[in-house]
Amino acid sequence: MTELIRQVDRCQRLLGDHLAAAVGVFGSAALGVIDLPPLTAAGRIAPAQIRAAATVFWCMNVEGAGLPAVVDALADALWDGRIQLPLGNAATRLMDYRRERDQHRFTAGERRAIYDRLFGAPTGFPEQWMALVGGLSELGRAPADVGTGELTARISVTALELAQGLSDRAVGIVAFAGREIVAHVQAALDLLRDPELSRALGGGGIWQIVRLHAPALLGRAVDPTPHIERAQAGLAILEWIAARAVGLEAGALAIGRAEPVVRAADTWRAARAVPLPAGALPAPVESVPGAGGSLPAPAVSAPGAGSAPEAPA
Length: 313
Hints:
Layout: H1 2-26, H2 47-64, H3 69-79, H4 89-104, H5 108-119, H6 125-141, H7 149-169, H8 174-192, H9 195-200, H10 206-218, H11 224-243, H12 245-250, H13 260-270
């Protein structure tokens, strides 16, 4: 949990770096602009735009872990009277969260559209990403007495293509969307850390709560672990690309076998979502007897409905 909070803070700092870069290019007027022009010419890598895209990639993977969807669905169920739980003051905070979401946050559909714009199949990102991750992982496994010049060159070309395309797409409202979606995720995390709400939902930490109640609230089981591991690894890899933009464009990228980005690639490859076996989840906490029923039963929905796009496998 502490690591996830650090990642939220990291995303906020990266988005702050983007805003500072925009002010450096466009002046203080950029502070009030939602739809920003590119920071560099097309085809050139803007590190700040890669960093903004990295935060959105992090958000997309965290959505796979059930956030903010579980808290959104819980707030809706409480608002509609489908459930009543002994929440005390936490009920007010949950309703405030819902009102803020409805008035100011991106909807699930709008978030999916942003993820598709940056990382969807038509962009070529999934293939580039898996080639990059595979190359970095292969580099880490290469014997110490074997040269890696050809492999490093292949990684460099793939990273350059990915960075150029992603930088070109990470313009307009992308940074604004990143700030808003990260804030939405943080608000959901804060609620699940609320002692009153946690107790009412069975306790055990936020990921236990998500595992416990996702089937009833979202209509599907959720295993947060692989998605959270990929969120952290993906953020690290894209930060690495942004930090090495100059070397990539100059064709002078140097990568060591033991660099953190190589370990991040291994983490990404190892983190695979595994279907949960029947009976793996305990029964969800029911509401107070006679006070409006329990959490709703899982709904039958179209495959993928209401969920974030899957990250590249």
